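Listing S7. Sequence submitted for prediction.
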Amino acid sequence: MKILITGGTTFVSKFAAEYFVKSGNDVTVLNRGSRDQVDGVNLICCDRAQLGDNLKGKHFDVILDITAYTDEHIRKLLDSGITFDDYVFISSSAVYPETNPQPFTEKQVCGYNSVWGDYGTNKLKAEQYLSKRVPNAYILRPPYFYGIYENLYREAFPFDCAMQNREFYIPENGEMKLQFFNVADLCRFIEILLKQHPENHIFNVGNKEIVTVKEWVKICYKAAGKDINFVSVEKSVPQRDYFCFYDYEYVLDVSEQNKLMPDTIPLMQGLQEEFKWYRNNLHSIYNRKQYTKFIDTKIKHQKKL
């Protein structure tokens, strides 16, 4: 296939560019050229907000739009003079209001989520605009992505704590639920969509297995080859000051995805692969939060579990 990927230099879009190049596709990436490019891609070097004539007259079998955050991003791309056969947009589970019944399903009404704020609202507007302009576009709503090239300080935080042989400070009893999706599974699912072209055009994507915070941290430590001791932190302490997820629990219904792709990468396997990569790429984190500093100066008196 001839594929255009928006982005291509960080986390999800970088992994996707590499994945589809290795699969034998002709991959073009659209980014500002501020970081190293994946080997084997063609580069269109420009800001997606200022496309000019860079895409005029170009045709692609598929656009993988991984970096659109607003309807304006979608509009400018569609108005650029580009033509294409398929369009896949990576949206977000943040389009579901936290007040919706869980697990969230694709048929639920979407709207404002007070946890994610404008991020979720803007993603929803982008979805709605794309669906009007390109009715056959595919829209994917993931939970938390993980995998190699991760540039957010999420898995890296328990990995760091494990490598430093630190005990881990966990919100209360650690029973808050988390749902993940490996970037490799995202690419596999996109391949399935493009091959089968199912009638459904909006999919929740993610692992069907849900884990608690405590289970997730244990797996991260195990992936690093370390044992773990937990310390419980009382609810009065702001969770985001010492922990890498918001105090927000939600679950996606991924049964429609499972009909097309029944199996996903086991979390243990995926985190082992990510740790092996992270250990050699400690510089990869975009914004390394000072969680351990807060813990060491503010809450080390908390009770051990």
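Caption to Listing S7: primary sequence and predicted structure tokens for the chain studied. The chain has a mean pLDDT of 97. The CA atoms of residues 179 and 210 lie 5 Å apart.
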